[in-house]
Write a structure and sequence with these properties.
A 7-stranded parallel β-sheet has the order 3-2-1-4-5-6-7, with helices on both faces. It is globular and about 45 Å long. By secondary structure, the protein is an alpha/beta fold. It has a single domain, classed as NAD(P)-binding Rossmann-like Domain (Rossmann fold). Helices cover 45% and strands 13% of the residues.
Length: 255
């Protein structure tokens, strides 16, 4: 059993992950805007720094896991906010807590990506801006794009950053496993916001899910728990799709 920091812990996948990890006997340090052990805004650089500092204080500088779940959907009206939370909020928390993870026991980190990162429209100049660490440019680009392109692009950038970093000496070489889960449509407040949107709602409802219907947050939490645990000790830089078969349906010949 160990200490795990979870962003977005107050709702959706983050709340389900928090509940699962606590049930498994872990101590969870939740990070969210409210109703969490650490209340801060991951949309800002100051909020991310505050989150890292508060988690390090609460865990005594030693973490066994980090899960970055906090995210915003494509329907959010403040479009630059989507990229600030989805990419920069996740990436900077992961990087900021790397030192505490390196001092943990069999440490692992998991990022919540999305199967939308593999769909047409995900690739754009936004991805390069994110990976270049230029948040101002990424926000400027986001203001010119459709919400779905921003959401998918931010998740694609996060996944690429993770896969580039995972095998490096400061991650794998330090004993820290870094992986991702790519959910499909999961019944969360984020998804409900999209369903309630007159533009995105019909598209989400028409999204093909071979197993039928939307997933539950607990489905993703189970995958996260696996990737954090000892049975996933040989997983490094992996992306686990938890999407009811959508990626396989749409990209079956990619492998």
């Amino acid at each position: 059993m160990g200490s795990v920091a979870v962003t977005g812990s107050a709702s959706g996948i983050g709340a389900a992950t928090t509940a699962r990890l606590r049930r498994d006997g872990h101590r969870v340090i939740g990070i969210d805007l409210r109703d969490a052990e650490v209340c801060t805004d991951l949309a800002t650089a100051a909020g991310r720094a505050a989150a890292v500092a508060a988690v390090e204080r609460q865990c005594g500088g030693r973490l066994d896991g980090v899960v970055v779940c906090a995210g915003l959907g494509p329907h959010v009206a403040d479009k630059p906010l989507i990229v600030s939370v989805n990419y920069f909020g996740a990436q900077q928390v992961l990087d900021g807590l790397r030192g505490a993870l390196a001092r943990g026991a069999r440490p692992a980190a998991v990022a919540i990506s999305s199967n939308s990162s593999t769909l047409p429209g995900a690739e754009s100049a936004l991805v390069a801006a994110c990976l270049g660490g230029d948040e101002a440019a990424a926000r400027d680009l986001a203001a010119t794009l459709e919400g779905q392109s921003i959401y998918a692009g931010s998740k694609l950038a996060l996944t690429r950053w993770l896969r580039r970093q995972a095998p490096r000496p400061e991650w794998a070489g330090a004993g820290i496993r870094l992986n991702a889960v790519a959910p499909g449509p999961v019944q969360t407040p984020l998804l409900q916001g999209g369903l309630d949107d007159p533009r995105y709602g019909p598209l989400i409802r028409g999204f093909p899910v071979p197993t039928g219907g939307f997933g539950a947050p607990e489905d993703v939490a189970a995958a996260v728990a696996f990737l954090l645990g000892p049975e996933a000790r040989f997983c490094c830089g992996s992306v686990l799709f938890v999407d009811g078969g959508t990626d396989a349906l749409l990209r079956g010949d990619q492998y």
